[in-house]
């Protein structure tokens, strides 16, 4: 077995450990492979920028040639396999779309200094009494979102969607009513909702979805995703405030009644209810008082008999 001494590290190694060099007398390089590896590694580390520049230069001079060759190979392969050819057009389209979306997202970040926070109106030109009031921390971005969802038919507001479908995009204009601080948005929006009664708004309470009915699929989806979650105290307070003073429909009352029929309060909950009522006077008419007394007697078999 032939061996050779490396002129770099000075160790004697098997000749297969040396790279081939046809022009050298023994046909082998003076340095062993291990020494070459170490040298190249060190060189790459020391000259990273220079090599990057060289790579870029090579790509600029020859890249298109190689890309064309690769395209041609793909084309031939596609023809051989009987596929349709679009030369990566779909891929380029996808990439472009993703880039646009990304740019939009970056622009709309709350840190965006160009964003305008305020109340806006979307108004019909042909029917000026029809308009929509909304608020956003970035009204321009929101207008774009409205346009896009109208185009796709996402029905943010069914009335506005119907109007859009009938009269087209050009009939709706976007008007910035006022700019305000983020914290005042809902207050200002509510002011406009109360005073102008916008035709397109289905929710008459700012930032609530009252009066808006989602589709069956959407309800199912939301229900699935909300299962087991509990709203924060602030959210619950808001929800409660939004419902306060609302008159319940007869249907609603019947449904609640049906749902609760036959249910009994637990002992703990009875104690709580009793404690809450303590000291309250019922203010009943004598007839009602008598009716309740009778009911209690029938239910329990206890209590004073009706005076007759
Ligand atoms: Zn060596």
CATH topology of the domain at 118-217: GIY-YIG endonuclease
Major sheet: order of its strands? 4-3-5
Largest sheet: 3 strands, antiparallel
Cα shape: elongated
Strand content: 5-15%
CATH evolutionary superfamily of the domain at 118-217: GIY-YIG endonuclease
Spans where pLDDT lies below 50 across 5 or more residues:
none
Percent range of helical residues = 40-55%
Count of strand segments: 5
Structural Rg:
39 Å
CATH structural architecture of the domain at 118-217: 3-Layer(aba) Sandwich
Under the CATH scheme, which class of the domain at 118-217? Alpha Beta
Question: Average pLDDT, to the nearest integer?
Answer: 83
Distance between the termini: 130 Å
Order of helices and strands: EEHHHEEHHEHHHHHH
Structural class: mainly alpha
Small ligands present? zinc ion
Task: Count up the helices.
Answer: 11
Can you put this structure into words, describing what you see?
This protein has helices at residues 33-46, 48-81, 89-108, 139-152, 158-167, 185-196, 216-226, 233-243, 250-260, 267-277, 286-300, and strands spanning 3-5, 12-14, 118-124, 131-136, 172-179. It is mainly alpha-helical. The protein has a domain at 118-217: GIY-YIG endonuclease, CATH 3.40.1440. Strand 3 and strand 4 form a beta hairpin.
